[in-house]
Design brief:
This protein is mainly α. It has three helices and no strands.
Length: 78
């Protein structure tokens, strides 16, 4: 995994974690204690982040990969 992929993975993981936490905080009436951040499964957030990295790799190697910023800027892509 290169630096760009790590940034994508971390950003998507954090966004998914935040989304899950917000959902749990808004829906606490059905299950007491469910809003606790410690009860969030990091595995589900990691799965979403993995898919994002795979989509990035696919985009970079695809026909339009030359139009992506990392490729234009000369950053290492894979």
């Amino acid at each position: 995994m290169n630096e760009m992929e790590r940034l994508i993975w971390a950003g998507v993981f954090a966004a998914e974690w935040s989304k899950e936490r917000k959902f749990r905080q808004e829906n606490t009436s059905s299950q007491p204690g469910w809003h606790d951040p410690a009860s969030i499964s990091g595995f589900s957030c990691a799965e979403v982040a993995d898919v994002a990295v795979e989509a990035y790799r696919e985009a970079v190697t695809g026909d339009n990969g030359e139009y992506l910023l990392p490729v234009k800027e000369g950053w290492p892509s894979l």
